[in-house]
Amino acid sequence: MLASILHRVTGDGMATVGAALLVWWLAAIAAGGQAYATFLSVFTTSAGHLNPIGWVAGVGLTFSLFQHMMSGIRHLVLDTGAAFELKTNRLLALLTFVFSTLLTVLFWLYLGIK
Q: Which residues in 7-19 are b (16+ Cβ under 10 Å) and which e?
């Protein structure tokens, strides 16, 4: 049940927060250098590194993306008529959390290396 609810929450979260951030970013670019600098200052430090708000937004949206994707793959498997046994279904639900967390960590480690 938690995996299904989180699938909906992450989809809604990415749609609302992601769209709001995209519109704000595009408006800041269109408004000029000062507006864009203000946008960046909300999420980054003066050295160009992410501040706590930037980390929460970045990691949160990344985790939402991977969780929604893994849950979507789980639902695709269920749509084929497979994995309806209770133990298998619970295992797949648990694996959505494991793989989404692992992919989020690997993604941010990759960004840290670059």
A: beebbebbeeeee
pLDDT tens by residue, 40-71: 999 999 998 999 999 999 999 999 999 999 99
Q: What are phi and psi of 82, to 5 degrees?
A: -100, 165
| CA atoms of 108 and 4, how far apart (whole Å) | 25
DSSP string of the chain, one letter each residue: -HHHHHHHHHHHHHHHHHHHHHHHHHHHHHH-HHHHHHHHHHHB-TTS-B-HHHHHHHHHHHHHHHHHHHHHHHHHHHHTT---SHHHHHHHHHHHHHHHHHHHHHHHHHHHH-
Beta bridge partners of 50: 44
Are 27 and 35 spatial neighbours (Cβ–Cβ below 8 Å)?
yes
* Per-residue pLDDT reduced to its tens digit, 1-19: 899 999 999 999 999 999 9
